[in-house]
Design goal:
about 240 residues, alpha+beta, 7-stranded mixed sheet, 3-stranded antiparallel sheet, 6 helices, about 25% helix, about 20% strand
Length: about 240
């Protein structure tokens, strides 16, 4: 299976040619997403099949012991080794990556005026300078929005009025705290006519989060919609 760099004329994405470039290239001058586009050999679908349905668990965390215990074919073993190599690569960079087999994500049971689960376009946040790293090996990949195409939902007058009613107070500093505590201020809607871009398969990404003093907009992204019967995702994230 092959994957290629995102085809986009957007200035917010920069393609790099190595992990060193991915780790050291600054996110600046409007660039809020770095992509190391790769083609990886191996049968990732076999890994998913052998993992089964997760025994009813929507997300199964995979480690070396789990992957090496699978009765994989040579092609499946190649896939497992690539994923383990990526785990080691990020850990050697002082990160804490997690490899998951994802059958589905929980939905908001009471989302209120704004949906806040991972199927909604959102930005990750951090109290200090930090980045999100991710790679999809199998299953539907993540999607992103260019900053010009993203509209913060709390800035929509109708939604803001509903949130103010839910808050039960004026549009002041306490209201901003309320929005932050419920992550309402991290969710976005696509602008009319916006075309989300795909993160693709095997591409390793480093994307901007919403942290104090960030010189670029956070990278707005979402998990792909999933339906019963859809293939599980193999996702590396840190």
């Amino acid at each position: 299976m092959l994957s290629v760099a995102p085809t986009t004329d957007s200035t917010c994405i920069k393609n790099v040619g190595s992990f060193h470039e991915l780790a050291t290239t600054p996110l600046a001058h409007g660039v809020n997403a770095l992509c190391w586009a790769r083609s990886l050999a191996g049968d990732y679908a076999e890994v998913v099949r052998l993992l089964g349905d997760g025994h009813g668990e929507p997300i199964t965390t995979l480690d070396e012991a789990v992957l090496l215990a699978l009765p994989l074919s040579p092609a499946g073993r190649v896939a497992a080794e690539h994923m383990l190599a990526d785990l080691r690569l990020l850990r050697d960079h002082d990160l804490d990556p997690v490899l998951n087999c994802i059958h589905g994500y929980p939905r908001d049971e009471e989302p209120g005026p704004i949906q806040t689960d991972v199927f909604s376009f959102h930005a990750d946040s951090a109290p200090i300078e930090a980045y999100t790293w991710l790679c999809t090996y199998s299953g539907p990949p993540s999607e992103g929005l260019r900053p010009a195409d993203a509209r913060r939902k709390v800035d929509d007058p109708a939604l803001r009025a509903e949130l103010l009613k839910l808050h039960g107070g004026p549009d002041d500093a306490d209201f901003k705290v309320f929005l932050n505590e419920h992550c309402y201020d991290l969710h976005y809607a696509p602008a009319p006519g916006a075309q989300p871009y795909s993160f693709g398969h095997f591409n390793l990404w480093r994307i901007a989060t919403d942290y104090p003093g960030n010189p670029v907009p956070p990278c707005v992204h979402r998990a792909p919609a999933t339906n019963p019967g859809d293939p599980a995702r193999l996702l590396l994230i840190s």
